Amino acid sequence: MIIGSLLYLKRFSRPDIAYVVSRLSMYTQSPSQDHWEALARFLRYLRGTMDYAIEYSGFPIVLEGYSDANWISESNETKSTSGYVFTLGGGAITWRSARQTIIARSTMESKFVALEMARSEAEWLKNFLANILLGMKPTPSVSIHCDCQSAIAIAKNKTYNGQNRHIHLRHNLVK
Q: Following DSSP, what letter does each residue of 105-165 receive, concatenated?
């Protein structure tokens, strides 16, 4: 019940807790004492940050995205975690943190998969904004920021010269 409430809170008002809630939700089937202590510590964090809020500055209305990933943080994990957040007018409007569907072989590959996940959301947001009145005709391009220079270089490269088929498809979409 607590995890369900935290999932709701994460989805609709607190992007800062996405990673922690997703980690805690993995242990709902059989939590250990360590997980209960982590949950109690997390609830204390929430109590101390109840005044946190998403603020929208208004204009100029610029849609920006930020993408990131970690590459297999623990030895018993096989898949990386991707995440993104999109802001409009200075405030977060959508965010996500999820396990990747593939097994990445490197940090660059993990970050590139996260970049493609963010690109998919950016395309949806751009189409959504084009359909509502915001005084933006046509909808401007969306900037997606990534902290991995090698993933950025591959995204900007016109031709794909890698070996992996799943990255080749993502390269075409991100490009």
A: SSHHHHHHHHHHHHHHHHHHHHHHHHHS-SS-SSPPP-EEEES-HHHHHHHH-SS---S-H
Structure confidence by residue, pLDDT tens digits, 128-140: 887 775 555 656 6
Which structural domain, as residue segments, surrounds residue 44?
2-48
Check: CB of residue 126 under 8 Å from CB of residue 63: yes
| Number of domains present in the structure of the chain | 2
Checking if the pLDDT of 154 tops 70, the result is yes
Residues 102 and 156 placed together within one structural domain of the fold: yes
Residue 21, pLDDT above cutoff 80: yes
**12, 5 contact by CB (below 8 A):** no
Q: Are 103 and 128 in contact (CB under 8 A)?
A: no
Q: What is the pLDDT of residue 107?
A: 82
Task: Report the alpha-carbon distance of residue 65 to residue 161 in Å, rounded.
Answer: 27
Candidates 129, 128, 109, 97; CA nearest to 174 is: 109
Residue 39, pLDDT > 80, answer yes
